[in-house]
Design a protein that fits this description.
CATH topology of the largest domain: Methylamine Dehydrogenase, Chain H
CATH architecture of the largest domain: 7 Propeller
Distance between the termini: 11 Å
Helix content: under 10%
Number of strands: 28
CATH superfamily of the largest domain: YVTN repeat-like/Quinoprotein amine dehydrogenase
Number of domains: 2
Strand content: over 45%
Structural class: mainly beta
Shape: elongated
Largest sheet: 8 strands, mixed
Length: 343
């Protein structure tokens, strides 16, 4: 168990955050009390009101993320991360609503996964890989850096680039995903994404970011887009209007996982690179819980070492081969791997 703890800490560098303050009312002195500072999925949440002025409280209505709850609530079907508790309190003919944020962590440690290299293929050493995805058996790649950002179709076996377009110098390319013959490509800080025809690479649309901070990684579940922005949040985008309808926050049993980068949807889970780390997190898209981690650190030693060599980034799942393809920024190799849970 000690070894597992060290591996998890090394891969993800967990950070623990406490819940928000109690937001004591200046008017009445009332505040919301909880039975703990932070909670795990499945814990019991007990609520009460601190009433230092001994006001005559007539009624209390508790809400959790906008849904009415009792004063004792089991935290089962809930998203991880920050959740908002409100209490509407009637007293002395008045009414007042208080708010308090709590953090909810996952209730189990992530499983550790190992990998086995199946094949090694050439990869363009000049590609600052940001997004990687197979579509109908063909590999597509998005690369970054201003003045060097590209969208590419690649023969993964030979490394040959069979189709390429360059982004304008003002754009820093980021993640990509492909849905219904449309390629969706993010840019980093320009608050804009591009849409292309997968067959011609003609640009057929664009979309702007809403609540998300920046553009980092992108994947899809066959219906919606999932977008990372360099924080612990993954945003859910409606492809009809690109509004960020919802989001999850990615947490382990110890705290949140920031710097989520390249994303891949694999058999109902989201796989995410962690920027500046050599690990990949396996995430439950329903609640944000990290269910597993894969340590790919040894791969970096297998590529050509040079001054521009950067971090692991790029995950593509080949559904027919049932394998993962992983690479990094300015890596000269693309690795095909299988993964398995460490016993």
């Amino acid at each position: 168990m000690r070894i597992n703890n060290c591996v998890i800490a090394l891969i993800l560098c967990f950070i623990v955050f406490n819940c928000g303050d109690t937001n004591t009312s200046k008017q009445s002195g009332l505040s919301i009390n909880t039975n703990a500072k932070s909670f795990a999925l499945g814990d019991q949440l007990n609520l009460s009101i601190n009433n230092p002025k001994k006001l005559n409280i007539e009624s209390i209505t508790y809400m959790l993320n906008g849904q009415e709850i009792s004063s004792d609530q089991t935290l089962n079907s809930i998203k991880l991360g920050k959740n908002n508790i409100s209490a509407t309190i009637a007293y002395n003919g008045k009414s007042e609503t208080l708010n308090k944020a709590i953090d909810v962590y996952n209730n189990k440690r992530p499983d550790i996964y190992t990998y086995e290299i199946v094949n090694t293929f050439p990869h363009d050493i000049t590609s600052y890989t940001q997004g990687l995805e197979f579509y109908n058996g063909t590999l597509y790649e998005s690369t970054g850096q201003r003045g060097e950002s590209k969208l590419r179709k690649v023969n993964f076996e030979s490394g040959e680039v069979t189709k390429n377009i360059d982004l304008a110098d003002s754009f820093f390319g980021e993640g990509l995903t492909i849905l219904n013959d449309s390629i969706y490509q993010l840019t980093w800080q320009s608050k804009r994404g591009f849409i292309y025809d997968v067959n011609t690479f003609d640009r057929i649309g664009l979309f702007n970011y809403g609540k998300s901070k920046e553009g980092w990684g992108l994947c899809n579940d066959g219906k919606n887009l999932f977008k990372s922005d360099g924080t612990e949040k993954i945003w859910v985008l409606n492809t009809s209007n690109f509004i960020e309808d919802d989001h999850i926050e990615v947490y382990t049993d110890k705290g949140k996982i920031p710097s989520l980068n390249e994303l891949e949807w694999i058999e109902g889970k989201i796989y995410a690179n962690i920027y500046q780390r050599n690990g990949v997190a396996i995430i439950n898209p329903a609640n944000g819980g990290v269910e597993g981690v894969i340590d790919f650190k040894p791969l970096r030693k297998l590529v050509t070492q040079h001054d521009e060599l950067d971090v692991l980034n790029g995950i593509a799942y080949h559904p027919e081969r049932k394998t993962l393809f992983v690479t990094g920024k300015n890596w000269d190799k693309l690795f095909e791997v299988t993964i398995s849970k460490k016993q």
